[in-house]
Specification:
- It is a single chain.
- The chain is an all-alpha fold.
- It has 9 helices and no strands.
- The protein is globular, with a radius of gyration of 18 Å.
- The N and C termini lie far apart (42 Å).
- 28% of the residues are buried.
């Protein structure tokens, strides 16, 4: 029993070292991408034309192939079927209520931003797919929010494990995923 606890202690050190590396990379990512939004609409968004992005192009093709759905729940259901993921798995992994998938369809109780992001992580979506899905419920990942940039960093680097995401968020912003609004 004692030997097991010694090995688990070493395992945590390895995880923390990996997570600290993520944090260092995320801080650099924030420094490079952080943009302060100014009061004028002229500066509210990055208006540079974007180069072609294979992920964004593939996302556009996916939407076209599925009849351009624009309802969050419909899109989530399509991703669940295609990725062979159950809603209960996502709920268990990301601390969501089991009723979240029923909640999505109810306009009286819309999905919160952190819940929508957790679903993106649970479905292993890339940045382009996540942005498109978040857009359907009125959310975006901005370059003027450290938490949004950390989420973007995680999506771009395929960091989908909640404990890793929360570690980075907590270390840099003193928040957890479920505290993002």
């Amino acid at each position: 029993m004692i030997v097991l606890s010694i090995f688990s202690k070493f395992g945590n050190k390895g995880n923390n070292k990996k997570r600290d590396t993520y944090c260092d990379e995320a801080r650099t990512f924030i420094q490079v991408h952080y943009v302060r939004e100014r009061g004028s609409d002229k500066y509210a968004f990055n208006t540079l034309s974007l180069k072609s992005d294979p992920d964004r192009d593939a996302c556009k093709e996916w939407y076209e192939a599925h009849g351009n759905p624009d309802n969050f729940q419909d899109i989530v259901e399509l991703y669940l079927k295609e990725n062979n993921v159950s809603p209960s798995t996502i709920c268990a992994e990301y601390g969501l209520e089991n009723s979240i998938f029923n909640k999505i369809s109810s306009s009286a109780c819309p999905v919160e931003k952190w819940e929508a992001i957790a679903i993106c992580f649970g479905l292993d979506l890339n940045l382009a797919e996540s942005r498109q899905l978040l857009k359907t419920v009125g959310y975006a990942l901005t370059n003027s929010s450290e938490t949004d940039l950390i989420i973007r960093y995680c999506l771009e680097n395929n960091i989908y494990e909640l404990s890793d995401i929360n570690y980075i968020l907590d270390k840099i912003c003193e928040r957890k995923l479920n505290e993002i609004s």
